[in-house]
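Continuing the batch. This is chain 6 of the set; chains 1 through 5 are on the previous pages. Same settings as before, nothing changed between runs. Recording input and output for traceability.
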Amino acid sequence: QVQLVESGGGLVQAGDSLRLSCAASGRTFSSNAMAWFRQAPGKEREFVAGISWTGGYDTYADSVKGRFTISGDNAANMVWLHMRNLKPEDTAVYYCTARVGWGYMMSPSAHTYWGQGTQVTVSS
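Output for chain 6:
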């Protein structure tokens, strides 16, 4: 099992920046990729960004490309999501995930471990 704990959410204004953190513990060696998803009220959970430890590459949803950056420290079992120029439509609960492999990265069902989420609210 891998345990994931997100932090860093909060209430910000449009145009502000925010950094989310995700701390992983447990059998972290059993995963080689991590990602961030988000879910807004009344909407489906959607992929935001993913990072591969073994391949050293990352990927982003089109809606956040150029504004969000995912980074991580494999040795420290930490992943961050740096969010810039936040918009009201970025308001959601943000979840950290861990998984093995890279296929179907944007599909929630392909991710094994999930954190409890952290709320991000962007006011206009």
